[in-house]
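Hi everyone, sorry if this is the wrong subforum. Our group has a chain we'd like a structural model of before ordering constructs, and none of us has done structure prediction before. Sequence below.
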Amino acid sequence: VNDVGLLATLARQHPALRLTASIGCGAQTPADVAAFADLGAAAVVLPATVDPDEAWACVAAAPVAVEIMVHMVEEFVLLGRCAMPGYFQLRPTPLPGGAPDDRRQSGSMKRGGVGACFKVCQQPWTLEDRAGHRAERGFPARQLSRLADVPAYAAAGVAVLKLQGRSLPGETLGALVARYRRALDAATAGRFADPGPAPELPPTWTVVGR
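Answer:
Right subforum, don't worry. Here is the predicted structure as tokens:
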């Protein structure tokens, strides 16, 4: 889940559920991990901005599974909680089981299970100053890759390494997963492995790390 209140409510009302505080909950520190554990989370997802040393501390903070999003786009808003598409692309959809006129606004991966992302952040925006000068700009979309840190994350006790691949074509995502799989298998076996050629990624993704 991506909402703190929903996490606490589900843990209280359905204690048998194994709940994950997903990336949208915003956890980044050992104190965050401990807090979500106290709220009932069995796992906590951290962003790639958390380095292996910090991951050690997060793993030690609470008896829960720590997951790291080792390959992701660093969004300019809170990761996993973007609401922009719903404001800029008005595409209302019928409510399940509702009357014909009952509609909800779609346009966010996290909104009501609609599952629609219109990639507003990846479109060029036209800026105009008071003098009338215009320019097109794009929002930042750094790609964070912690491939070289896979052995250190494994040694730190990180339970799951996650890749953000929702917006990638299947062949690109397959090549990306294979690189991390080779690195993880090598780390588990205590040896070095050449991860192979990097897959071709969208030009808006600026690679940070190797």
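For your construct planning: The mean pLDDT is 82. The longest helix spans residues 170-189.
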